[in-house]
Amino acid sequence: MADKLKDPNTLGFLEAAVKISHTSPDIPAEVQRSVKEHIMRHTRLQRQTTEPASSTRHTSFKRHLPRQMHVSSVDYSNELPPAAEQPTSIGRIKPELYKQKSVDGDEAKTEAKTCGKINFSLRYDYENETLIVHILKAFDLPAKDFCGSSDPYVKIYLLPDRKCKLQTRVHRKTLNPTFDENFHFPVPYEELADRKLHLSVFDFDRFSRHDMIGEVILDNLFEASDLSQETSIWKDIQYATSVSTALLPGLLEDLQFWI
């Protein structure tokens, strides 16, 4: 509006506006100037009313705002992807996870944990119809006490008979005990094919229940030896913390340890 007031055509219009009519006498120049100043001042007041200038406090506050706060000047339309194109994994099945879990489970089954080896021999006495089990030694047993040692002994069963339970002497503070003990199981030769030899290795504890180290189960006696002569056999001791399922019916008897 101020620019229009500087226009010669506008000024001419104002000068014409101060005349009451064409027949009235001209208004003095001082009155005309006063009227023009009044009109220009009134126009500036209207401009201030409709478009207030920013206050000093507002300008100072806006100047101290960080650049990131001036969100009105940032255009996010090009940065945000369409809502329909946003990827999501909710409710999506990932077959590779189940496949990996299955593979790990198969590996765990094939790799049974062992805890040392045991050496023994078998021989059948045809004259007395007796199976002779010779427990020779054990090797590389795990430590079961704070000193890094163990007090091992071996229990021997000829399954399915669980009433006849034999065991070696306890060997103190060793992980490689030498037992060298013979055990006799009366059994007819015809029944040997249905018998299983079960060896369980324990750590003796004077003040609490004995710790089971592991076990060996020989399902077929004739596969390990022809039984006509004594044959040395080495077997891995399979890790176990409780009595094998083959001995569950006699579990209560097994809890009564004797030396």
TrEMBL record:
<dbReference type="GO" id="GO:0030276">
    <property type="term" value="F:clathrin binding"/>
</dbReference>
<dbReference type="Pfam" id="PF00168">
    <property type="entry name" value="C2"/>
</dbReference>
<dbReference type="InterPro" id="IPR035892">
    <property type="entry name" value="C2_domain_sf"/>
</dbReference>
<feature type="region of interest" description="Disordered">
    <location>
        <begin position="43"/>
        <end position="63"/>
    </location>
</feature>
<dbReference type="GO" id="GO:0005509">
    <property type="term" value="F:calcium ion binding"/>
</dbReference>
<dbReference type="GO" id="GO:0005544">
    <property type="term" value="F:calcium-dependent phospholipid binding"/>
</dbReference>
<dbReference type="GO" id="GO:0070382">
    <property type="term" value="C:exocytic vesicle"/>
</dbReference>
<dbReference type="GO" id="GO:0005886">
    <property type="term" value="C:plasma membrane"/>
</dbReference>
<dbReference type="InterPro" id="IPR001565">
    <property type="entry name" value="Synaptotagmin"/>
</dbReference>
<feature type="domain" description="C2">
    <location>
        <begin position="114"/>
        <end position="235"/>
    </location>
</feature>
<keyword id="KW-0677">Repeat</keyword>
<feature type="compositionally biased region" description="Polar residues">
    <location>
        <begin position="46"/>
        <end position="58"/>
    </location>
</feature>
<dbReference type="GO" id="GO:0017156">
    <property type="term" value="P:calcium-ion regulated exocytosis"/>
</dbReference>
<protein>
    <recommendedName>
        <fullName>C2 domain-containing protein</fullName>
    </recommendedName>
</protein>
<dbReference type="GO" id="GO:0001786">
    <property type="term" value="F:phosphatidylserine binding"/>
</dbReference>
<comment type="similarity">
    <text>Belongs to the synaptotagmin family.</text>
</comment>
<dbReference type="InterPro" id="IPR000008">
    <property type="entry name" value="C2_dom"/>
</dbReference>
<dbReference type="GO" id="GO:0000149">
    <property type="term" value="F:SNARE binding"/>
</dbReference>
